[in-house]
Design brief:
The complex is a heterodimer of chains A (125) and B (544).
Chain A: H1 4-18, E1 29-34, H2 37-41, H3 44-57, E2 63-68, E3 80-83, E4 90-92, H4 97-110, E5 118-120
Parallel strand pairs in A: 1-2
Antiparallel strand pairs in A: 1-3, 3-4, 4-5
Helix pairs in contact in A: 3-4
Chain B: E1 7-12, H1 15-18, H2 22-36, E2 42-47, E3 59-62, E4 66-68, H3 76-86, E5 95-96, E6 103-104, H4 111-114, H5 132-137, H6 142-150, H7 153-163, H8 175-184, E7 191-196, H9 205-212, H10 214-228, E8 232-238, H11 242-258, E9 273-279, H12 288-295, E10 319-323, H13 324-336, H14 338-342, E11 352-359, E12 365-370, H15 375-382, E13 392-397, E14 403-406, H16 416-421, E15 430-435, H17 440-454, H18 460-477, H19 483-499, H20 503-507, H21 510-518, H22 520-528
Parallel strand pairs in B: 1-2, 7-8, 7-10, 8-9, 11-15
Antiparallel strand pairs in B: 1-3, 3-4, 5-6, 11-12, 13-14, 13-15
Helix pairs in contact in B: 2-3, 6-10, 6-13, 7-8, 7-10, 9-10, 9-11, 10-13, 17-18, 17-21, 18-19, 19-21, 21-22
The chains are: A alpha+beta (125), B alpha/beta (544).
Chain lengths: 125, 544
């Protein structure tokens, strides 16, 4: 180990790998993906992984992607809910992997809700 | 793979959970994940101890913050099918608070964790202790790098002094002053020793830190070495701690390879390396002079002090001996500053303390709490109350060197000085909770049996005095004691305390004196009515 900079470089790389483990520590943005049988058969796993890849790609801190069970909106799967602290949760339906990326880009980063994807504003967790 | 997988399953790999097949659980999880094709999305990590040993093996699923308890290898399939694939909690594996009988999903909502504050245990249950990169990810070796590249040894010592950190092994001596004393004794060769000879019955604070976060101790030893002017450190560890030894060896190898141990660290002229020395499990070797004798290859017997190790220690060189938990506090103190550390705790005891909570309490395990917390909070909030709704009788702190605290003192603030003021002591952190089914005479006898066996025999008061104390206690538990025996216990106890050579003898009568002080009636009941109210002493009647 030659310098602090070298150490910090290793740290940043390793941090990306384990950041996810601080879930529950502080106030955070949660993205919930419905993964009931209906969700999975409509491609929720692909959507989830594409959202996660986007979060990783953009190196977003304090944003956690979690899977949840079926909430009953089976007709609109895959369902994705965005929960931002102090804001009303937003429920999106028929979220394809591409739409998933759009949610990150617009809703999470720019704060613009994707109006035409919304199916409701309440959800359980 | 640089990017995080979507789920991390943190499985406790401490000794407690491993003894309940957590290793098999890890294998089973990997196997099932592979079978369902989820291996690329989920990472199974074997971490250090979560502290919640009562309900092991533990799995924490992140980022969901879901905490599963008492998980068997056969549950692996269910957890993967339900939680990983379908996003549903496995209800029956969630923890249920003893008082409310309600399921609690998240670790942060559990009473056991709510009142805890983790500094020494900060990485236990969070990182894989056998992966140095994970330690670096949580700012590992950043304190060492900062110290070596931006601070002088004197500045490091001043910083530690300012934090008011006191030794966590039991003595409570201010760590910064110990470093300063060793720094001031000029010599071409000095040593750092980490005392990992944890010996109190039921205590496993240090073991868990070494198993769960070995690098934090290595890093702190190097920092201490820089501060006092030593280039060599020894960890004196019990051979009965095979998992801790294994993880330390892995950590030392990785640290050398990474270049955070060895020569010219951070491109300075500072060299530091660490070697393990195995102890054979003698309690007295936790005493620093006996420990040093043992490292040198001699008998584990204490020497008279002075000279203190800071003047003449290992191979007659100035030596600084610190405990595992003390070391684990050092890196955060350097990184967050002494003001941060001294803002935690009570007036004269700063920071946190790790306790091994054991005995008749619902949540047996390892807890780290800020100094000054009430004993009541530890037992009833974190500990979940007394088992089977029995009544609390006493709490033994400080192990065989400590004393008992009774229910009247439940609201005392736990710190070094308050415990001493009520006739007990902080010790290294053992905390044994007793209810009305525990006989205090028998408890005192148990500890005396321990110290009698562990006395090294070098000085007479300890060697013979403790034997006599034990004999008198045995007599009383058989119903053959007399009232004069109680006076004898007190006189002999005082004599042993005042005339013994080392800390072992100087404190060994404490359990007798303390129980006698608080529970004299129970002693008299054994002597006069030949009755053991707790029903423990065989051959005596049992009327409460």
């Amino acid at each position: 180990m030659k310098s602090l900079e070298e150490l910090k470089e290793i740290r940043e790389k390793a941090k990306k790998r384990i950041n996810i483990r601080s879930g529950g520590e502080v106030e955070e943005v949660r993205i919930l993906v419905g993964m009931g049988t209906c969700g999975i058969s409509s491609g929720a796993r692909e959507t989830l992984n594409s959202i996660l890849a986007e979060v990783n790609e953009r190196d977003l801190k304090g944003v956690y992607v979690t899977q949840v069970g079926c909430d009953g909106n089976c007709h609109a799967e895959p369902i994705v809910q965005v929960k931002i602290p102090q804001q009303e949760p937003v429920l999106y339906g028929k979220v394809t992997p591409a739409k998933g990326k759009e949610i990150i880009e617009k809703h999470i980063i720019k704060g613009e809700v994707l109006q035409d994807l919304i199916i409701g504003r309440a959800f359980h967790e | 793979m640089v990017n995080s997988r979507r789920l991390h399953m943190l499985v406790c790999g401490g000794t407690g959970c491993q003894s309940q097949d957590s290793d098999k659980l890890v294998k089973a999880l990997d196997l099932v994940l592979d079978k369902y094709g989820y291996k690329e999305e989920v990472e199974v990590v074997k971490t250090g101890c979560f502290g919640f040993c009562e309900k092991g093996p533990i799995i924490k699923v992140q980022p969901d913050d879901i905490f599963y308890v008492e998980v068997k290898p056969k549950d692996a399939k269910r957890i993967i099918e339900e939680h990983v694939i379908k996003g549903r909690r496995v209800e029956d594996l969630l923890y249920s608070e003893p008082a409310k009988h309600e399921k609690v999903e998240k670790q942060h909502d559990m009473n056991f964790y709510k009142k805890q504050m983790r500094i020494a245990l900060r990485n236990c249950g969070l990182i894989n202790p056998e992966d140095i990169e994970e330690y670096i990810a949580v700012d590992g070796y950043l304190a060492l790098g900062t110290v070596l590249t931006t601070m002088t040894p004197v500045e490091v010592i001043e910083l530690v002094k300012k934090s008011s950190l006191r030794g966590r092994g039991g003595g409570g001596f201010p760590t910064g002053y110990k470093w300063e004393l060793t720094y001031r004794n000029k010599h071409d060769k000095k040593y750092i020793i980490c005392n990992a000879d944890e010996g109190d019955p039921g205590a496993f604070m240090d073991r868990s830190i070494l198993e769960g976060d070995p690098h934090s101790v290595l890093e702190a030893m190097a920092i201490a070495g820089y501060a006092i002017g030593a280039d060599k450190g020894f960890i004196y560890i019990r051979a009965e701690y095979p998992l801790a030894i294994h993880r330390l060896n892995v950590a030392i190898d990785q640290a050398r390879e990474m270049g955070v141990l060895g020569k010219g660290l951070f491109d300075t002229d500072f060299n530091f390396d660490i070697e393990l020395k195995y102890g054979a499990g003698a309690f007295v070797c936790g005493e620093e002079t006996a420990l040093i004798n043992s490292v040198e290859g001699g008998r584990g017997e204490p020497n008279a002090k002075p000279p203190f190790p800071a003047e003449s220690g290992l191979w007659n060189r100035p030596t600084c001996v610190n405990n595992v938990e003390t070391f684990a506090n050092i890196p955060p103190i350097i990184l967050k500053g002494p003001e941060w550390f001294s803002s935690i705790g009570s007036e004269k005891s700063k920071g946190t303390k790790v306790f091994a909570l054991a005995g008749k309490v619902n949540n047996v395990g390892l807890v780290e709490v800020p100094m000054g917390i009430k004993l009541r909070d530890i037992i009833y909030e974190i500990g979940g109350g007394i088992r089977g709704d029995h009544k609390l009788k006493a709490v033994q702190t400080g192990g065989p060197s400590g004393g008992c605290i009774t229910a009247e003192n439940l609201d005392i603030a736990i710190d070094y000085d308050s415990l001493t003021s009520i006739g007990s002591m902080m010790g290294s952190g053992g905390m044994i909770v007793m209810d009305e089914e525990d006989c205090m005479v028998n408890i005192a006898k148990f500890y005396l049996e321990f110290t009698e066996e562990e006395s090294c025999g070098k000085c007479t008061p300890c060697r013979i005095g403790n034997k006599r104390l034990h004999e008198i206690l045995t007599k009383i538990t058989k119903g053959e004691g007399t009232e004069e025996d109680l006076e004898r216990l007190v006189n002999l106890g005082q004599m042993i305390k005042e005339s013994s050579l080392c800390g072992l003898g100087q404190t060994s009568p404490n359990p007798v004196l303390s129980t006698l002080n608080h529970f004299r009636d129970e002693y008299l009941e054994h002597i006069i009515n030949k009755n053991c109210p707790a029903g423990v002493c065989k051959g005596l009647s049992n009327k409460s």
